[in-house]
Amino acid sequence: MLHAPIIWPDAVTFLAAEAPEEPVFIFAPAALKAQARRFLDGFPGLTTYAVKANAHPQVLATLLEAGVRAFDVASPDEIETVLSLAPDARLHYHNPVKSRAELAFAHRRGVRVFACDSAAELAKMREVLPPEGVQISVRFRMPAKGAAYDFGAKFGAEPEAAARLLAEAAAAGFAPALTFHPGTQCLNPDAWRIYIEAAARIARMAGVRLAQLNVGGGFPARRTGDEAFALEDYFAAIAEAARRAFGDQVPPLACEPGRAMAADCMSVATRVKLVREDGAVFLNDGIYGALAEAPLLGSATRMRVLDPSGRPRRGAPRPRVVFGPTCDSVDRLPGEPALPDDLAEGDFVLFEGLGAYGMATVTRFNGYGPTRVATVSAPRPV
Ligand SMILES: Cc1ncc(COP(=O)(O)O)c(C=O)c1O
C-alpha cells in the first residue's frame, strides 16, 4: 500500500520550507506522465519501461497511471516489484543471462518473453522453459556508434551466431524474436537503422518470420540542456528503417526505454557542507550516491545553485573541484564543473535529469546517499 506523499508546489518551496540537511530527490510525476505519453503516442509499437532505470514505487505507479502496461525486467526482484503494483503487467525478462532458478521463477510468475545471446543460455532455457506461448528474443550486436557507453562489450551475439540461435529457438517451438540495444544515451538515430537492417538480414539467414523486433533502450535524455534532438525524430527513423528493411512484413516493434523515460522526472537537491580555502566544494552527495554515473558519462552541466532561502545564486561561473561527502578521495565529480563564485556553505546545488540511474545506483557507502523523495506538482522537478 503506497502512502499518499505530501505534494509540494515546486522544489524551491520545499527547500525553503524544510531546508533539508540530507540530499533529496525532487520528483515531478507530471514530467514522467508527459514523457510516457510521448512514447505511448509516438513510438510505432509497444513501449515497455526498463525498470532498472528507476524502480521506485511512485515512479512505477505514475507510469501505470499514464497507461504503461509493459515492463522490461532484469531480475526476480524487479518482477516482484512490478507485479505487486500491476499483477497483469506484461513483462519482458531481457537480461540476457539468467540462472535456471531465475528462469523457472519468472515463468511461474507469468513471464513469457525472455532474451538470450549465447548457445549456452539457449540450451539452459530449452531445459527450463516449456516452449508453448514463450518468446525467445535473441540479442545481437553491431558496431554502431553514438552511445555514451557500448553495451556490445558485454552482450549480444554476432549476426551469424544470432541467426543460428534464432533458427534453433524457432525449431524448438518458441516464438522467435530479435532484440538489440544500441548503447545508452545514444545520440545517433542512424544506429537504429544499422541495427534494424541487420535484424532483417538475420531473420532471412535464419529463415524465420519474427514474432517481435525489440529496438531496445538507448534513447537519449538531455544532459547539458542544449542538445538538439527530439525523441519523435528517433521514432520516425525507426519506423522508416523498419519499412525499408522488412517491406510489407514489418514485425511488431517494441522498445524498452529507461533513461529517456525517467531521467527528467527527478532532480537531486544537494547541499554545500564546506567551501574550502582553496575553493574546493564539498557536497552532501557524490559518486557513491545519486551522481554515480558522473565518472562514466561526465559531469552533467544541468546544475543550479540556490541560496538557503531558495534564491538563485547569480555570481559569475567559476570552475570548481567538487567532492562528495564520503571519507574517500575517489568521491569527486569529474573535471571542474562551473559554479557561481558567490556559492557558500548551506547553499543548495540542484542536479537536474537524475531520474534514471540516479536513485537506482545509490550505495549508502559511509552511510551517505539520498533516500528521501519530495514530490512536486510542478510540470518539472526544478
Ligand atoms: C535489456 C535492456 N533494456 C533496456 C535498457 C535501458 O536502457 P536505457 O536506459 O539506455 O534506455 C537496458 C539498460 O541497461 C537494458 O539492459
Spell out the blueprint of helices and strands.
Layout: E1 7-8, H1 11-18, E2 24-27, H2 29-42, E3 46-50, H3 57-66, E4 70-73, H4 76-85, E5 90-93, H5 100-108, E6 113-116, H6 119-128, E7 135-139, H7 159-171, E8 175-179, H8 190-206, E9 212-214, H9 231-246, E10 253-255, H10 259-262, E11 266-275, E12 281-283, H11 294-297, E13 303-306, E14 317-319, E15 322-323, E16 338-340, E17 348-351, E18 372-376
Parallel strand pairs: 1-18, 2-18, 3-4, 3-10, 4-5, 5-6, 6-7, 7-8, 8-9, 9-10, 12-15
Antiparallel strand pairs: 2-11, 11-12, 11-17, 13-17, 14-16
Helix pairs in contact: 2-3, 7-8, 8-9
The structure holds pyridoxal-5'-phosphate.
Domains, number? 2
Q: Give the proportion of residues in helices.
A: 25-40%
Q: Report the principal-axis shape.
A: elongated
- Enter the CATH topology name of the largest domain: TIM Barrel
Q: Ions, cofactors, ligands: which are bound?
A: pyridoxal-5'-phosphate
Question: What are the low-pLDDT stretches, counting only 5+ consecutive residues below 50?
Answer: none
